[in-house]
Amino acid sequence: MKPLLAPSILSADFGNLKSEVRKVEKAGAHLLHVDVMDGRFVPNITVGIPVVEALKRCTELPLDVHLMIVEPEKYIPDFIKAGADWVSFHFEAAVHHHRIATQIKELGAKAGIAINPSTPVSLLEEILPYLDFVLVMSVNPGFGGQKFIESSVRKIEKLKELSLELNPELIIEVDGGIKVDNVERVLKAGARAIVAGSAIFKGEPEKNVKEFLKKLNQFE
Ligand code: DX5
Ligand code: ZN
Known about the structure:
Elements: E1 4-7, H1 17-27, E2 32-37, H2 49-58, E3 63-68, H3 72-82, E4 84-90, H4 97-106, E5 110-115, E6 133-137, H5 152-166, E7 171-175, H6 183-189, E8 193-196, H7 198-201, H8 205-216
Parallel strand pairs: 1-8, 2-3, 3-4, 4-5, 5-6, 6-7, 7-8
The structure holds D-xylitol-5-phosphate and zinc ion.
Residues 8, 33, 35, 66, 175, 195 line the site of zinc ion (ZN).
């Protein structure tokens, strides 16, 4: 599949969210990545259900909601009701992964599991056939603008190998420290959904989206 670009609003100007979203939508982004943090699973607090609901009203882009929260199953129905189209929860924040993935799909959204940099892809072996996507964190979750962790490239390759065997339709998403100059490496490794926050919203979002798309469009 053609790679998808998912700008993360975490680095956008929250005082002008609507116009920030419009800019990336107009420039050709495919998804809008929304980072939900609870101050418990990660040491930061961001946005919740009302913001997802408001974003839904200002864009046609599918909302890719990345839940960095404990007990995600408690809130998933409300996030989907508010307009989340893709929902990922953290492997490390949940116990009943299969139950939660099924819950997300039954409510009509795409189901994904996010994994921290130190969580091995081998732990996903049993759940992989039930997922639409896996979000590989290439920084420790919690903040935008951090440095890409190099070992993530090998991890994406390993996950790609595993998915060819267990779930060829699986989409590998990568999140954290992605810039125009390292995106080709994660694409080559097998990533097909690319999250970028600071590399898109710092500076000129339209121009940044177009530069990313030039790289993404070289891949099938
Ligand atoms: C970090 C978030 C990311 C963040 C990425 O916990 O999950 O989505 O916005 O920001 P950059 O692209 O600046 O690393
Ligand atoms: Zn994210």
